[in-house]
Amino acid sequence: MALRLFNKGSVACLLVLLLLVIDQIIKIEVKTNMFLHESVRVTDWFYIYFIENEGMAYGMTFINKLVLTLFRIIAVIIIGIYLFRQVRNGARWGYVVCLSMLLAGAGGNIIDCLCYGQVFSPSTNVTLAHFVPWGEGYAPVFYGKVVDMFYFPIIDTYLPDWLPIWGGDHFIFFSPIFNFADSCISVSVVALLLFFRRELGEISFSSSKKEENEEGAENREGKKSVEVENVSNEETNNQK
Fold first, then answer.
1. Alpha carbon distance 69, 142 (integer Å)
2. Annotated catalytic residue within 112, 161, 169, 182
3. 148 an active-site residue?
4. Active site residue 169
5. pLDDT given for residue 82 in this prediction
6. Which residues pair with 51 in a beta bridge?
7. Helix 2-33 crosses helix 93-111 at what angle (to 10 degrees)?
């Protein structure tokens, strides 16, 4: 049991660290070597397209930047605690891997929000960003922009003129621009929904299954003792 716990815990930590390193290497390479909104064609349906956003995954924005960053930090803490509990409870390997990917993805974008505004100069259409001393960057802590770069315009066409309302409009599928951390989040969420619905339905932050079983056994033993004592009292009363 100790060996299994050590292995799962180590794999989870190493996987999170590896994904974070990959995510940051890609972002730093793009940010320091590409102008804002510059694109590099890889194929007709795949581009490296450098943008920055203040929102959630895939550039979505629903709430204030500070609130979003704080929400991300709280979410990472909760996911980390839950992952630790699941490792200790002996969760399946696949479940641990998916949770680790989810944690790494959320953590990767938090690094952008917390640090990039402090250590990078601004990225513009005509100037490349570069490292600066801490605190001399383009934005305060919590207000750094998330770097996105993967663009997959799988279908890039114009809708037929005879189509009502949207006829003749430019249509792109898939238009969101995202980063490696977003990919980790998306892949892990899809895998969790497809293969680990039972675990998701049993989400709990209780200490461990072992402790729950021991507590249940103690309760059963206590009930048995009470029952034996009651029977013994009844026999004594009958003898009198």
1. 6
2. 182
3. yes
4. no
5. 95
6. 148
7. 30
